[in-house]
Amino acid sequence: MTDAEFVREIAQPLNGDANDYDALLELIGDARIVLLGEASHGTHEFYFERAQITKRLIAEKDFTVLAIEADWPDASRVHRYVRGASGDANADEALSGFRRFPTWMWRNSVVVEFVEWLREFNQHLDPKCAPAGFYGMDLYSLHASIDAVLNYLEKVDPESARRARLRYSCFDHFSREPQEYGYAATVGVTESCEGQVVEQLVELQRKAGEFLSRDGQVAAEELFFAEQNARLVKNAEQYYRSMFRGRASSWNLRDRHMVETIEALVAHLNGSRQPKAIVWAHNSHLGDARATEMSQHGELNVGQLIRDRFGNEAVLIGFSTHHGSVTAASDWGAEAERKSVRPALPGSYEDLFHQTGLERFWIDLRSVGEKEALFGPRLERAI
Question: Fewer CB within 10 Å, N or C, the chain?
């Protein structure tokens, strides 16, 4: 039996039917964390299938956390919309806060439709059930998160806001481009702001009891969001300094922050039932780095850390394609273009899957043992 014949034998075809993912949901079972990847940040089919699986996980398996590869403040606006606590008129408006390149990553038709679905789902949910939320887990929003912390403190404790503004003024010598700060602090042109951002997070955590005593559940949610923004500022400050020390250092810090965010969400929402989380990000974040050459470069990722933390309670799902199209840009910050995805290279996973002759399918790697066809070293597409 050839490798392609073996894959064809174990493949579960996808025909576009409502029951396409019945077996996948059975495999997921009682898992608490489901990671849903993508081989590119701009291919409709990846987004569409991921959204379909997510809807079923929320509706049928009581998942209440969706954490995406996006900044916390931008996603918070969408979170308020899907919870019915926003002044935005529709999903498109709620998503308009996503302005950082590449904007099409989250401001696209599939995400708009999904956000509207999630809002409607929450509206018709039994009041005894926990609504689902929409959260960001990335750390690029240094200044937006600073603004969010200050806005929160201005409402609850103006004196604390004054101290926070003084601490965060450490960044005022630079533009709103945090890379400038990172470079200056790394080469010794300026002192780092590490001490100030840590102090601010510690003070916010220390005063949590006082803030929580004021408005009950609303206060708890607002405090958690403020604390998460303060934590993001702390980690982002480290990240922008680490950018100039090598890829592995900054990559690892970023993925650790993502996992820290997921764990913080699960802990915050932990009530009578343990919350279950879905994660949307690129395959490079959500696969297990130990199974790729990333580990040879000293890199880890979300998939590895989540698997270490949750074991078999985590399910990792990736997406890829042999050929197709992708929305992408020719340079960072450039206009979006529709680009062709070339046919997969010989010897790659995508080439192997294409040889099966099946148009669309999924496979359960847990059920195939150490079959060399699927566990030997092969190229894998990443756009």
Answer: N
Domain boundaries, the chain: 1-138+247-383, 139-244
Q: Give the integer Cα–Cα distance in Å for 314 and 58.
A: 16
Task: Concatenate the DSSP letters of all residues of 100-158 into one string.
Answer: SSPGGGTSSHHHHHHHHHHHHHHHTS-TTSPPPEEEEEE---HHHHHHHHHHHHHHH-H
**Closest alpha carbon to 182 in 132, 128, 242, 231:** 242
Nearest to 91 by CA among 111, 72, 74, 63: 111
pTM higher than the cut 0.90: yes
Q: What does the angle CA 76 – CA 82 – CA 87 come to, to the nearest 5 degrees?
A: 75
In total, the chain counts a number of residues equal to 383
Q: According to the CATH classification, is domain 1-138+247-383 in 3.40.720.10?
A: no
Question: CA–CA separation, 41 vs 288, rounded Å?
Answer: 19
227-240 per-position pLDDT tens digit: 999 999 999 999 99
* Neighbour-count burial of 187, counting CB atoms closer than 10 A to its CB (0-12 exposed, 13-18 middle, 19+ buried): exposed
Give 16-74 pLDDT, tens digit per residue.
Answer: 998 999 999 999 999 999 999 999 998 999 999 999 999 999 999 999 999 999 999 99
- The number of CA neighbours under 13 Å toward the Cβ of 377 is 4
